[in-house]
Amino acid sequence: MHGWTAGLDDLADGIFDYARDRMRLDPVPLDGPREPAELAAAAGATITTDGLGGEAALRLFAGVLAPACISVDHPRHLSFVPCAPTEAATLFDLVVAASSICGSSWLEGAGAVYAENQALDWIAELAGLPEGSGGAFVQGGTLANLSALVAAREHARAGTDRQTGRWAVVAGSEAHASIAHAARVMDVEVIVVQPGKDGRLEGDGVAAALEQGRAGGQRVFAVVASAGTTNLGIVDDLASIAGAVAERSVWLHVDGAYGGAAMAAPSVRPLFDGVEHADSLVVDPHKWLFAPYDCAALLYRHPEIARRVHTQHAGYLDPVERGGRWNPSDYAIHLTRRARGLPFWFSLAAHGTDAYRVAVERTLEVARYAARAVAASNHLELVREPVLSVVCFTRTGWAAADYYAWSDRLLAGGIAFVVPTVVDGEPAARLAIVNPRTSEADIDLVLHSMR
Ligand SMILES: *Cc1c(COP(=O)(O)O)cnc(C)c1O
Q: Which of 72, 79, 142, 421 best tests ligand 1's pocket when mutated (most atoms within 8 Å of CB)?
């Protein structure tokens, strides 16, 4: 008899109290990383033959380990793309953990998969994808992009058995790093296209790249368009790109890992016109749709193509494929799978989609405020007018080292987490606003710190 359930009630109280207290912190401390030696001194060896006991291990986490992690939901965490889950989503994540669901197959997780698919359907509906589109929640945009491109390549392979040129994908110069990484993993080339003068990738450029690829004997199997670049939030001209792609029967993959959430916001929805033509689409609810890590939505226009490519076959898996029901494991490079879409689903179900529209619009409003404040300041200059909720700007007279010193100072003071970026080779400050709790006052505080 093992002793794992001994002291369950006390430990449960400790864990639930911790979770409740953490969620009540307002504002949550920003916290920050510590050196390995500092952590070693403070935490020591945590894995022992006899165990520390749950309460001691929790105390160690609460006192030493958790404060050595930056709180991504802090309203002045404006680096990279932060994550600001709703309380409903975070709480339900506890339920998902306690429910021991395998989200791989309909056989094992029918109820969870049903709910996840409704959440996916909402995103498909925002995009205007046709009835019958579908996919799965995967770990992140990186894996989603790779899975979609693998499906696209296998689909193309089926149609081009007599050709032998190098496989290639066409992508804009501002496409996310995960596209180049996927190409590396797949051993395919990337034909890089420069965007038009407003920074958007356009149909003409894509058409030229497709022709160039064809002339060079490459087998171009997909075009990747960005629906919100990570660095600047630029949405490519999806309608003209879709036109160029359709004429040449190439797969259109739209990477909306960050920006796709803004399809829920009427004030910017027209920017996404053309997304309805996507063969595959990625939107990360863990970025701008208020879901906890890790949760990326991967959708296919023709899921059966992805299913043929991604289903794993083995004698012991035959029972899963019986009955032909929807198995999330069939749509990406994964098998065992947490039902990671459920926290997102629960929050959507609890709050309704209008609340999502309002929350995304709020972040856009604060981004526009930030842009106005930068424009009005005499020591700051916008790199470009923000399109979505990323605001990029420079500080007169600052070199990269100044941005880093400023960024370090803000983090060390527990004030804000704002790391610099590089645009066209020049250092710049960058605010990524995806947290509805980020206010105009937060923006003022950060901007004033640059004086
Ligand atoms: C963040 C991002 C990705 C990668 O997503 P992860 O969830 O971090 O793996 C891909 N594309 C774009 C446009 C992104 O912003």
A: 142
Token pair of 227, please?
């629906």
Q: What is the mean pLDDT, run by run of 10 residues, along the chain of 451 residues?
A: 83 97 95 97 97 96 98 98 98 98 98 98 98 98 98 91 87 98 98 95 98 95 98 98 94 98 98 98 98 98 98 92 92 98 98 98 98 98 97 98 98 98 97 98 98 91
179 in Cβ contact with 185 (< 8 Å): no
Return the CATH architecture of domain 353-448: Alpha-Beta Complex (3.90)
What residue ranges do the domains of the chain occupy? 2-30+33-69, 95-351, 353-448
Best residue among 143, 255, 282 to mutate for probing ligand 1, ranked by most atoms within 8 Å of CB: 255
What spacing in Å lies between the alpha carbon of 143 and ligand 1's midpoint? Answer: 9
Ligand 1 is surrounded, with C-beta below 6 A, by: 81, 140-142, 145, 176, 178, 226, 230, 255, 257-258, 284, 296
Residue 308 alpha carbon to ligand 1 centre in Å? 25
251-256 β-sheet, strand order: 134-138, 296-300, 280-283, 251-256, 219-226, 167-172, 189-193
For residue 102, the CA-to-ligand 1 centroid distance in Å is 25
Q: What is the CATH number of domain 95-351?
A: 3.40.640.10
In 10 A of CB 299, how many CB atoms? 28
